[in-house]
Amino acid sequence: VQLVESGGGSVQPGGSLRLSCFRSGDTYSSDYCMAWFRQVPGKEREAVASIYSGGSSTRHSGSVSGRFTISQDAGKNTVYLEMNNLKPEDTSMYYCAAKACLWPNLQSETYPYWGQGTQVTVS
Predict the structure, then answer these.
(1) Do 102 and 52 meet the contact criterion of CB atoms below 8 Å apart?
(2) Who contacts 101 (Cβ-Cβ below 8 Å, separation ≥6)?
(3) pLDDT (tens digit per residue) in 25-42
(4) Average model confidence (pLDDT) across the chain
(5) How many CB atoms are located within 10 Å of the residue 35 CB?
(6) Quick one: pLDDT at residue 28?
(7) Rounded to 10 degrees, what is the CA torsion of 37, 39, 43, 47?
(8) Residue 44 half-sphere exposure toward CB, CA atoms < 13 A
(9) Which of 28, 33, 70, 92 is most deeply packed, by most CB within 10 A?
(10) Which of 6, 109, 106, 101 is nearest to 54 (CA)?
(11) Which whole number is the average pLDDT over 68-85?
């Protein structure tokens, strides 16, 4: 499985960005989860949101709930992270991850597939 993130950049506080993650390589599996995590150098990786491929089940961490929304376009093998009302503390490298699963979870250690990341800077 290969994951490629895009959409990062610099934005002022209160602004918005939409991240995309394109998934390829294992397009035959019907039950999988995709998730977004973020990490600042020197700090632990933080879960952001996760979505299950088979429906609309999602999970969002408390720190982004109400501001960020994860969604997917199954036909395009792409997951999105819509980020609104961005804050300076949202500045981080954002990573897309994937795993076989039946319910979205935010445990990063359970995800075997990772993208290279896309940087988001809010200042």
Answers:
(1) yes
(2) 31, 32, 33, 52, 110
(3) 876 567 889 999 999 999
(4) 93
(5) 29
(6) 59
(7) -10
(8) 5
(9) 33
(10) 101
(11) 94
